[in-house]
Design brief:
Distance between the termini: 20 Å
Largest sheet: 7 strands, mixed
Helix content: 25-40%
Number of domains: 3
Shape: elongated
Structural class: alpha+beta
CATH class of the largest domain: Mainly Beta
Mean pLDDT: 84
CATH architecture of the largest domain: Roll
Low-confidence stretches: 406-413
Radius of gyration: 29 Å
Number of strands: 19
């Protein structure tokens, strides 16, 4: 364990003490278990680097060198290297296997075929006992809460060495909601590091932003230009983008909105007319719709090729008159089970349920619950279909803030 090695005496081959072990240096970015490349030794008030090729023994209470000759120049970091005690120990890390933030209360090292390597993290607060009692009396807590290093990603933005980047590929394995939870559980600087890592994937960035709470969305947009903000908002679902735009200051809302593509601008300007807690404010203007006279097989094909509607609304097809007036809705399952040549308006599963744009959350929730709907049509005063609300929008609106805090409290920090 790192805490068992720190401050151990460093001896020359003859057994004479030269100084004390200050830190261990590992090289990140090579995958697997990072190799220990050297140690930092405090000798006569100076920090000295000793490469692992000159370390004969590394053990609690004793570090023995294999050479009498040391380069006593001032210690300097090299590209890609981190100091375990200074840069990792006691700090937050990401448990990417479980999508949570943990703290490195100790670090596990091991000697394998080709040398010493960083093998894991002890996230148990009980590991702190090793720092508080004499070395020989320290309990062995290695079996408690040890995380395999392969499942861990450190935050390295604070490391002055050499532009270490958080690998996007590891974050892609997580659901956007898990990445958002990581951002919300981390400090602002750590959250920025995660956001910067995903920004090269515009779609993923938008998905993560949709899952963030409003406070964090605004926090990260503040540090971005209007053009960057417009790019992220332009990739988000229109209803989520409208909610976030509505939180921006007026002096920023207009320029950001004007930088977005014209079709997206048009949708957002319409959504911004409604209060966020009404059906108009919650609805999504992207949905799958067909006109009267469309066959069931053609409606199914429309679902298959649609690339605008969110997944939550793909389970329902909305039917309108040629002039846009709402007729009803059909579940995709009903279409699949029915006669493929039957016209959609003649399907027995057709449901004529809708809410007005001004309906409040209670009205929408009760209708969807009473009729077991996963999506509900929103119409204007002339009965024209203008949007759709999915059940996940309702669930998100109904989840109390206290529940969100409970999730954060159980995240394993």
């Amino acid at each position: 364990m790192l805490t068992q090695l720190l401050n151990s005496p460093v001896l020359n081959p003859a057994g004479d003490e030269l100084g004390r072990l200050e830190d261990l240096i590992v090289k990140l970015g090579e995958g697997g278990y990072p190799p220990v490349t050297g140690v930092k030794v405090r000798i006569g008030g100076r920090d000295v680097y000793v490469g692992m090729e000159n370390v004969d023994k590394l053990a609690p209470g004793e570090v023995r060198l294999s050479t009498h000759t040391l380069h006593t120049g001032a210690f300097q970091r090299r590209p890609g290297e981190v100091l375990l005690a200074a840069d990792v120990f006691g700090r937050h890390l990401m448990d990417v296997a479980r999508g949570r933030i943990v703290q490195a209360h100790d670090l596990v090292l091991g000697s394998i075929d080709d040398g010493w390597r960083l093998l894991g993290v002890d996230r148990s607060p009980r590991a702190m006992l090793r720092r508080l009692v004499p070395r020989r009396a320290r309990p062995d807590l290695r079996r408690h809460a040890i995380l395999d290093w392969k499942d861990v990603q450190p935050f390295v933005g604070h490391v002055p060495t050499a532009k270490l980047l958080m690998p996007l590929q590891r974050l892609r394995r997580l659901h956007p909601a898990q990445i958002a939870d990581l951002v919300e559980s981390a400090s602002h600087e750590e959250g920025e590091e995660i956001i910067h890592a995903v920004e090269s994937d515009v779609e993923l960035t938008a998905d993560v932003f949709e899952e963030l709470d409003t406070e964090h969305q605004l926090e990260f947009l503040k540090s971005r230009s209007n053009e960057e903000a417009a790019k992220v908002l332009g990739r988000m679902a229109p209803d989520d983008a409208a909610d976030l735009l509505g939180e921006l200051d007026n002096d920023r809302l207009t320029p950001v909105l004007s930088m977005m593509p014209a079709p997206q601008q048009h949708k957002l300007r319409k959504l911004l007319q409604y209060h966020p807690t009404t059906a108009g404010g919650m609805m999504n203007p992207d949905y799958v719709s067909v006109m009267r006279g469309t066959s069931a097989s053609e409606a199914i094909e429309r679902v298959r090729i649609d690339d605008k509607a969110p997944h939550q609304l793909m389970s329902t097809v909305f039917i309108t008159e040629p002039d846009g007036k709402f007729i009803g809705s059909l579940g995709v399952v009903d279409l699949l089970r029915g006669d493929p040549d039957c016209m959609v308006e003649d399907e027995p599963g057709l449901v004529d349920l809708r809410v007005s744009a001004g309906a409040d959350l209670a009205d929408v929730t009760l209708m969807m619950a009473d009729y077991n709907l996963t999506a509900l049509a929103v119409t204007d005063g002339a009965s024209n279909l203008i949007g759709a609300i999915s059940v996940d929008d309702i669930v998100e609106a109904l989840v109390p803030e206290a529940w969100r805090n409970r999730v954060e409290a159980s995240s394993g920090v």
